[in-house]
Amino acid sequence: MNATAGGTMAAPSTHTDSADAGALTIGPVRRLVNTRAPGRRCAAVLIWLLISLGPLERSLPDHPASKAFLISLMIGPWIGLLWWMHRKAAWASISWRLDEEGVLHSSSVSESRSLRWADLDAIRPSEDSIGLRSGDERLAIPLNIPGSDRAAILAFVRSRLPAGFDLDARPRPFGPIGPFLRRIAWAILGTLLFVATAAAPALIPIHGGPRIIAWIGIIAIYAWIWIACEAAIRYGRRADDAIWQRRRDS
């Protein structure tokens, strides 16, 4: 494998290690690391806030201070969220070293992590990376870094993967119809429950019913938002786990 020319130390590249002809180094590349992702509580609170802005605006007096308060509610949480996500973020110089034993991920701001080829229990090939998993430890080998040799990386990883793994894309088999029908049934049941507990109570006061019933609908809407966020996160985790390719029996 030939080295890819790089102008400076920070320029990413793919090259064989001069000290070890059987090793391949990717990088270094400069990236923003240690960013945090919001969880279901944060998502639910932000959605609650957005749907509450309309009723809150109608209940406040027509005054410049009220408008300033509403603007702060619309902008402030997003600024706070961005600050929270990037509070511990830092720019780091990252590189990957692939050899006969496994993969070493090095960063200038954190401890190095490694995975051994022999310990792999699942892989996830994609267009821009190759995901490796061993228990709870995960590493991703990038394929789209400018200056890196994609073909050389793929050939190196393919030759080192244990028996039972491959990088060829395979169509996912169509699963049994039972779980699919159960999901459809749950979706229909959830829609009916939402109409009964949220939509109907909110519409009753419009047609002359007691206004207190509307509060039942409002509380139910908030509860349904929480349930939807929880369900979306759980489904996302299952979908992510299904993408990983396990070792096939020989």
Radius of gyration: 26 Å
Strand content: 15-25%
CA(first)-CA(last) distance: 30 Å
* Second CATH tier, the architecture of the largest domain: Roll
Low-confidence stretches: 1-11
Helix and strand pattern = EEHHEEEEEEHHHE
Instruction: State the share of residues found in helices, binned by percent.
Output: 40-55%
Average the pLDDT over all residues and give the rounded result.
79
Biggest beta sheet summary: 5 strands, antiparallel
Morphology call: elongated
Number of domains: 3
- The strand count comes to 9
Label the structural class: alpha+beta
> Strand sequence of the main sheet, in spatial order?
1-2-3-4-5
CATH class of the largest domain: Mainly Beta
Counting H and I runs of at least 4 residues, what is the number of helices?
A: 5
CATH topology of the largest domain, anyone?
PH-domain like
Task: Write the SSE topology.
Layout: E1 14-17, E2 20-33, H1 40-59, H2 64-86, E3 90-98, E4 102-107, E5 113-116, E6 122-125, E7 129-134, E8 137-142, H3 150-160, H4 177-203, H5 212-243, E9 245-246
Antiparallel strand pairs: 1-2, 2-3, 3-4, 4-5, 6-7, 6-9, 7-8
Outline the structure in words.
The chain is built from five helices and nine strands. With 250 residues, it is α+β, with helices and mostly antiparallel strands. The protein folds into three domains: 93 residues, Roll (PH-domain like); 47 residues; 70 residues. Helix 1 runs antiparallel to helix 2 and helix 4 runs antiparallel to helix 5. The chain is elongated. It starts with 13 loop residues before the first strand and ends with a strand.
